[in-house]
Please model this.
Amino acid sequence: MLDSDMAADTLYAAASPPAQEAASAPAVPVERPLAVQFTGSGVEYLRIWLLHLLLTVLTLGLYLPFAKARRIRYLYANSWIDGDALAFHGDPRTMFRGFMVLVALFGVYAIGGRFAPLAGYVAFLGLCVLWPALWRAGQQFRLANTSWRGLRLAFRGDLGDAYSAFGVVIWPLVLMVGVQRVAEDLVTGRVAFSARGTPWVLGAMAVVGGIGTLLYVALLPLALAKVKRYQHNHYQLADQRLLMQVKTRRFYALAFKTLCWVLVPVLVLVGLLLIPDLRAWLDSNKTAGLAAIVVVVGAYLLSFVLVGPYFNAKLQNLVWNHSASEQVRFASTLKFRSLAWLTARNWLLILLTLGLYRPFAVINTWKLKLEAVSIHVSGSMAGWDGRESANYADASGEAAGDFFGIDLGL
Amino acid sequence: MTTSASPTLDVQWFDGLHPVARPARLWFDANCVCVQADGDDRPTDYGAARLRWPEPLRRGQRQVLLPDGGVLACADAAAYDAWLRQSGRRHGAIARWQQSGWLALLTLALLAATLFAGWRWGVPLGADAAVSFMPAYVDDRVGEQVLQELDRHWLRPSKLSRVQRYEVYARLANAVNAMDSRALAKLTPVELQFREGGRHFGANALALPGGTIIVTDELVQLLADRPEAIVGVLGHELGHVRHRHGMRLTLRASSVGLATGALVGDFSLALATAPAMLAQQSYSRDFEREADEDARKLMRSASIDPAVMADFFERLRKQREEDAEERSDSAFAAAFSSHPADAERIAFFRQR
Model:
């Protein structure tokens, strides 16, 4: 064990009960940082990834959950916090069952919608209704199967809260996508009303769909705030329950700034086209048309390299800098510039190597994101009681795995 | 009590309840796995229970996951591997495979071979089997939709006279009547539709799923002085209909798209759609050959020399070149509009 915990270790080895230990702790607990380090290697991960890809292709995708479990174990075993790595306990066979359920759900949605409109609608509604439950199950499974120093993490959010967090956007989403799909089917004649009624129905639907879209966009940051709060307020390790305190308006500010980054490439493009000489040259020259296409595609790609990393970096910093439990505090200093640069480099190399660089990209992105986080603990950890989270993990983790093996980011 | 001769490994034992490790030793006994912490007077036996062993990572922590939620951690990878070897055990097959650089190269080669085989034989087999299970009304509905789309955006009503249309019907009917009964039985009923092809389609004939064949005005005009060649063109389209090429192509191309989407999709749409487009081109060349065979058969049974098709292709090529010059597209379009397969097709129809 590490030096600063030595005293606590000896105490624990002497089997002193936690209560006494807390009493003997100093009155003002000293805060100390836990070193966070990632030691994964791109080459090693490439070899793992290649074999998994081969097995997945040979089994027509059935190996996917097993590959997933192995890959999570690899990433975890290389994610060190204070001298000990995370461990993943997920049973791939449980993940396989959850995977099959998901495949069936999405399969019905994708294929059913093509041949019978009604089946498509039902499957879409079903997905919307089930989504919060599925998402919660995924969180439960992932957290309950993650341990550090033998202590299981837990996700304690209940089902009602999941629905109230996601509910904000699900109604407008149903309006928007539902209306869009019905309108498509009307226009292509797959669903028909009387000839006289159709224009009216279409008009009304355009209004409803428009309102749905506006609502969806306007409520998205609120939903993000609610989902992140739901997520971070229900993480638990031993008796340390996380609490995130971020005002909703900070999510709106983040969304607005992200939108500005979307506009940058667009404005650059418009600005370029406004230069009269350049336009004349484009109009006259034939190969210039090709160059213009390249520029537009370039701007499109640039927006991905800028917008995604900006949003992800700022979001990670926002939520982790304001998340803390009684004894643990997080700080995240992920730099937008580093993430954007890394993303651009990853994309370029993935394209140049026809995808073979992907495992390297996964490793270096994970490293950058993880090592940007620092963890500070005040007082002694020796008294933490794993039963607090483990009991809960036992109850929820297994059942949840039946649904879901998918990870949802870091 | 630990007077066993088996090699032991020093580990940190986390019991799953407290964040503090106890130094412990791990060893294999005759038929059990034993863990004993310093200070315990007897080892814990994890014999029959399911333990999960770590993979040989270069720098990661070696973790043995215990069924009771505990973890045995070993930071010294070399020591772990040495202990495993001395105990007469090995890492699992997949774990060992993952370690070797040469096997990784072999994996890459196998992967490329598998993907190629799947693309060349697997997808066609699977998609064709799926189509053969698909009821015919699916073809009909898809065909109807495609026709509606074409009419809305690309095609105009035909300006051919009734006489011109009847002549096409008559030629097709005569040719079909001349077929022997066995070949006739294989034919699917079709319906001819006349449309003006315009800028986009020009002289052309299209077979839609379900059996609708679109003939453009420009095609009839192009063959005004060689009307028997239309039998070859219609025979080609009849072949497409008989083999359900439209549905098969759609399903093949979309399953290639789906597969590449699953492999690389989470990062680039362009990379995912390119193989689907390539697949479409490659598969459609196979189908063209098959349809050409049907066309040649129909022409022979109607006592028309298939060599007239060579003339037809020549005219088509000339027209395409003129169009390209007229529109004076970029070098881009010219590269795509040249059909190197023409020579091969001409040779095919010239065969005796």
Notes: Residues 11 and 21 of chain A are 8 Å apart (CA to CA).
